[in-house]
Amino acid sequence: MSHSILETRSQTPMWVYERNFSFLKTVVKACLENENNGYRHDYETGHFEFNIVEQCKYTLEMDIQQIIDINEFIGEGVSFRVRIYMDARLAEVVSYLGESRLLPDYEYPNKNMWHPDEKKQANLLLHDCLLHLASQGIQQQSIKC
Predict the structure, then answer these.
(1) What is the DSSP-derived secondary structure letter of residue 91?
(2) What would the DSSP string read from start to end of 104-133?
(3) Structure letter (DSSP) for residue 70
(4) Cis geometry, peptide bond prior to residue 104 (ω within 30 degrees of 0)
(5) What sign does the dihedral 75-73-135-62 (CA atoms) show?
(6) CA–CA separation, 34 and 56 (whole Å)
(7) At what angle do helices 15-33 and 118-135 cross, to 10 degrees?
C-alpha cells in the first residue's frame, strides 16, 4: 500500500492555505522591501493590488483587491483580507467582499445566503486568482498604500 505525500496533502483542507502562502511570500517579501508596503501585479485585463495593513512579529494582514480594466465589464473585482502566518507558512482569507469575519461553517439557509462552506470557497477563489496571476507571467510594480 503506497501513497505519496502530494496525494495525501491534496485531500486535507490545509493544502489551499499552504499554496496561497507559497505564492504570497514573494509578494510579501517585495512589500516589506518597499517603503510604502504596497505592490501591484498587472495582467491582460486588469491588475491586483496588494497592501500590507498590519504587521506583527509572526503574522501579516494584507488586503488584496482586483481591479478590472475592461469598460464593458459590469460589476467589480474581488477583494480579500488575508492573514499570513509566517511561522506556520499559511495564508488564510479572513474577510471577503466586505464580510468582516468568515465563519468556518454556516447553517443553510441563512440571512445572507452564504454557502455552508463559504470560507473554504473564498480560500479556493484566492488560490485560483493567484494561480491565474502566476500563469500570466505577471509584471510587478510598486504602488502607494
Answers:
(1) E
(2) S---SS-TT---TTHHHHHHHHHHHHHHHH
(3) -
(4) no
(5) negative
(6) 17
(7) 60
Residue with cell 455552508: 116
3-state secondary structure (DSSP) of residue 89 = coil
Cell numbers linked to 17? 492555505
DSSP 3-state helix, strand, coil percentages of the chain (rounded to 5)?
30, 30, 40
Residues paired with residue 79 on neighbouring β-strands, in sequence order: 65
Cell numbers for 95: 474577510
Strands, sheet with 90-96, edge to edge from the N-terminal-most edge strand: 90-96, 79-85, 59-68, 46-55, 38-43, 139-142
Q: pLDDT 10s digit of each residue in the chain, 145 long?
A: 444 455 555 567 788 999 999 988 877 777 777 666 788 888 777 888 899 999 999 999 999 998 887 776 666 788 999 999 999 999 999 988 777 777 776 677 878 766 767 788 888 989 988 888 777 665 555 454 4
* Domains in the chain: boundaries: 12-138
Grid cell in block for residue 143: 504602488
| Alpha-carbon span 129 to 135, nearest angstrom | 10
